[in-house]
Amino acid sequence: QLCDLLLGNHLDLALTLDPRNPTIAFRTLFTDELMLLVSPLHPWAQGHAITSESFSRETFLVYSRTGTTYRMAQEYLHAEGGDLTHVMELGNLEAIKELCKVGVGVGVMAAWVAEKELKDGSLVALPLGERTLERAWGIALVRERRLTLVEETFAGLAESVAEIRGLKVDRGEE
């Protein structure tokens, strides 16, 4: 849908995950890693092994089943022999974090989204698996279009904020 808005000239640019669309140019600003977020009382946070059996019993809390993050997590886990069997779609990151804190389920999101909760110990971040699952965030625009001076300034500010927050900044252009 985002690509349609860009191609239809309803948006000039979008700060988004890489849409992987040949008609859209994408300038990577930073990358993040998807993690499992759990209550510190969750067995996985206590050091219990994350097995395919324990994985299949969990309820996973996600923002959207139709989004790029969900698709990426499903593909990754399927390749690892797992699956997001029980999923609750909430559409609100704060609600996901709060439900994770009280043990309702396991969140699938980047650690920077829950930076405060990870620092205060109300949530624990665990790797999704043995391999990392990184997402690229950046600026998407129609391939033939060039950024204006104002848009270039915006991109530079977004890179600076990502760098200050300790995210992996990519200074190259695609």
Characterization of this structure:
This protein has 174 residues and is α+β, with helices and mostly antiparallel strands. Helix content is 32%, strand content 27%. It has six helices and eight strands. It has helices spanning 2-7, 52-57, 68-79, 93-101, 115-120, 149-164; strands at 14-17, 24-38, 59-62, 86-89, 106-110, 124-127, 134-142, 168-169. Strands 1, 2, 3, 4, 5, 6, 7 and 8 form an eight-stranded mixed beta sheet that branches. Helix 3 links the parallel strand 3 and strand 4 (86-89). The longest helix is centred in the C-terminal third of the chain and has 16 residues, at 149-164.
Q: What is the strand content?
A: 25-35%
Low-confidence stretches: none
Mean pLDDT: 89
* Gyration radius, in Å: 18 Å
Question: What's the structural blueprint in terms of helices and strands?
Answer:
Elements: H1 2-7, E1 14-17, E2 24-38, H2 52-57, E3 59-62, H3 68-79, E4 86-89, H4 93-101, E5 106-110, H5 115-120, E6 124-127, E7 134-142, H6 149-164, E8 168-169
Parallel strand pairs: 3-4, 3-5
Antiparallel strand pairs: 1-7, 2-5, 2-6, 2-7, 2-8
In short:
With 174 residues, this protein is of the alpha+beta class. Helices cover 32% and strands 27% of the residues. Strands 1, 2, 3, 4, 5, 6, 7 and 8 form an eight-stranded mixed sheet that branches.
